[in-house]
Amino acid sequence: MAVVDVRNLQGKTVGQVELADAVFAAQVNPHLLHEAVRWFLAGERAGTHKTKGRGEVSGSGRKLWRQKGTGRARVGSIRSSIWRKGGTVHGPQPRSYAYHLPKKMVLGALRSALSAKLSDQKLTVIDGWKLDSHKTKEFRAALTKLDGETRTMLVVEGPGNRNLELASRNLQGVKVVAPAALQAYDILRHDRLLLSQDTALHLGRSLGPGAAATAEAASHDGGAETAPSAPASKEPSKRRQSKAASRPKSKLSPKAKSPARAKSQGQKIKRAGKKHEYRRLQSDSPAHYHGKGIGRERDAAHRGL
User: Fold this and answer.
1) In angstroms, what CA-CA distances link 234 with 186, 230, 238, 284?
2) Residue 273's domain spans which residues?
């Protein structure tokens, strides 16, 4: 694991901390960083651009002159897109530029950005942001002791430190974000990254390669434990049993057929036989073989002559 010095607000080293290699010593992937920055900037776009179409610009809707006889080009409206002050065709309309980026790519870009900062020695671990006041002057003095040459700094600290939020919001080039809202774009945009000791350990646990899989497995195990057992087969209620018992039982056996059913089946067989006989007679007629290359002798044979 990577070992980093821990410094206090006076700029003195007070200890060391071990950071996870999977998060702070991973291989830097430039392509992944590019995709994460492009995705973040696309989501930040307002998308409020708007042009007026033919039906939105001002102007009369009447036909300017008659269709024929003037020698001029035909025209239907003064709001046509080919006229000055006319509507815009296929112009930009309000829309969202945001798109989905896989979570694994976002986490991989964060690991690459953190590893790049540590390899460039631009990552500082602080023992804690214990500010006595919300004044900007005291916070600015602490940043100068930590690194006075850096112009832009990114401070990553969890929510709840009110003095830090108030003291940093009026400083140009200083931004405070929570670990859950950390983006690769913010890490790359600022020269110096300042992490508290607790935040650095938290990022090492939450951004590890197996963190997402472990969380999913835990959720599945919890769901399996709390899942209700399969419902037992329900017996028929007494009401259904009473209805079934009250129905009169048929005297005929299951294989026996009622007279009406047997009669209907006999009629179907009779109709099918008549239909088959009609088709046979129709195929034996001379007209059936006419035009199919069969001579008169075969026609006579079929007629029984």
Assistant:
1) 60, 12, 12, 64
2) 259-303
Tokens for 28, please give them: 């830097």
User: Do both 37 and 163 map to the same domain?
Assistant: yes
How far is 216 from 265, CA to CA, in rounded Å?
Answer: 63
pLDDT tens for residues 74-91?
999 999 999 999 999 999
Q: How far is CA 74 from CA 60, 79, 81, 140, in A?
A: 16, 14, 14, 71
Higher pLDDT, 305 or 190: 190
DSSP tag of 79: T
DSSP 207: S
Distance between terminal CA atoms of the chain? Answer: 109
157: left (phi over 0), alpha (psi -120 to 50) or beta: beta
- Angle value at C-alpha 213, between 210 and 214, nearest 5 degrees: 80
pTM metric for this prediction: 0.63
Same domain, 289 and 157: no
**What 3-state DSSP class applies to 283?**
helix
> Buried (b) or exposed (e) across 96-108, using 16+ Cβ within 10 A?
eeeeebeeebbbb
Closest CA to 61 of 44, 75, 72: 75
| Polymer length of the chain | 305
